């Protein structure tokens, strides 16, 4: 999937994936897509909840070899 | 933009505890809430004030009892004891080591990050009087207030925690 910005949050523990996601999102325009890579096991639930509650859209999540990839479209 | 400002949700945390583990939990939640775009207030009272102390002694004229308190209480976020398994200070050393291994942000950095994210840190002035802690001994950029200011924030908050 195409993205406008990539955030590498691999190896970071809670709460850093959402803290950094929020920061990175701030640099995007509405409609642009942020791609996030994370390894924190809670990140999957965390980022889904974060996107829902902050008015952004989680387009897709994949998991490969313990790395979660998220695509979130800025609302 | 102004619309967004007025509809911001609020989170408040009363940090009563001066234990390392509890303060870490408080600041992780605060940073998370700030990332949720909430307006976040941490109201530090009683032992929680120790998390916001500077780690170096500040020369201030004080009474005997206040001086005693100052000596006995931990000086700042990096010197707090654990609520369980403190083992005379070995516990915190171990937990810090494990946190590093797991890439968990240390408490002083969590506090810095909270400030950066606009979390409002409030020191309870009544507790400061009781424990003999003065402004000069606490981190810069704190606000000073009492229960009224806390309730003002908390009554609009959806998440209000006492830690």
Write the CATH homologous superfamily of chain B. DsrEFH-like
Low-confidence stretches of chain A: none
CATH architecture of chain B: 3-Layer(aba) Sandwich
What about the largest sheet of chain A?
4 strands, mixed
Which chain pair has the greatest contact?
A-B, 13 and 14 residues
Overall mean pLDDT of chain B stands at 94
The string of secondary-structure elements of chain B, in order, is HEHEHHHEHEHE
In CATH's first tier, which class of chain A applies?
Alpha Beta
CATH architecture of chain A: 2-Layer Sandwich
CATH class of chain B: Alpha Beta
The helix content of chain A is: 25-40%
Give the biggest beta sheet of chain B: 5 strands, parallel
Describe what this molecule looks like in 3D.
The complex is a heterodimer of chains A (75) and B (163). Helices cover 29% and strands 35% of the residues of chain A. Chain A is an alpha+beta fold. Chain A has one domain: 2-Layer Sandwich (Translation Initiation Factor IF3), CATH 3.30.110.40. A 4-stranded mixed β-sheet of chain A has the order 1-2-4-3, covered by helices on one side. In chain A, strand 3 and strand 4 (67-73) form a beta hairpin. Chain A starts with a strand and ends with a strand. The model of chain A has no long low-confidence stretch (mean pLDDT 96). By secondary structure, chain B is an alpha/beta fold. Chain B has helices at 2-6, 20-35, 64-72, 90-101, 107-116, 125-131, 147-154; strands at residues 10-15, 39-44, 120-124, 143-145, 157-162. A 5-stranded parallel β-sheet of chain B has the order 4-3-2-1-5, sandwiched between helices. In chain B, helix 6 (125-131) links the parallel strand 3 and strand 4. In chain B, helix 2 runs parallel beside helix 5 (107-116). The model of chain B has no long low-confidence stretch (mean pLDDT 94). The interface between A and B is medium-sized, with 13 and 14 residues.
């Amino acid at each position: 999937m195409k993205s406008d910005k990539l955030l590498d949050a691999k190896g970071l523990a809670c709460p850093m994936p959402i803290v950094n996601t929020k920061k990175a999102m701030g640099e995007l325009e509405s409609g642009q897509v942020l791609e996030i890579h994370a390894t924190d096991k809670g990140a999957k639930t965390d980022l889904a909840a974060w996107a829902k509650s902050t008015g952004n859209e989680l387009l897709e999540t994949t998991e490969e070899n313990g790395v979660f990839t998220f695509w979130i479209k800025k609302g | 933009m102004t619309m967004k400002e007025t509809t911001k949700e609020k989170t408040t945390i009363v940090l009563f505890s001066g234990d390392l583990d509890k303060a870490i939990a408080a600041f992780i939640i605060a940073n998370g809430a700030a990332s949720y775009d909430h307006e976040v207030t941490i109201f530090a009272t009683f032992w929680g004030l120790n998390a916001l102390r500077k780690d170096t002694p500040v020369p201030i004229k004080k009474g005997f009892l206040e001086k005693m308190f100052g000596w006995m209480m931990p000086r700042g976020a990096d010197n707090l004891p654990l609520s369980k398994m403190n083992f005379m200070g070995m516990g915190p050393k171990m937990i810090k080591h494990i946190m590093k291994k797991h890439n968990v942000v240390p408490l002083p950095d969590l506090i810095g990050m909270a400030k950066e994210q606009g979390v409002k840190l409030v020191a309870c002035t009544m507790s400061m009087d009781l424990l003999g802690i003065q402004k000069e001994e606490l981190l810069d950029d704190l606000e000073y207030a009492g229960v009224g200011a806390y309730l003002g924030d908390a009554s609009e908050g959806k998440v209000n925690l006492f830690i």
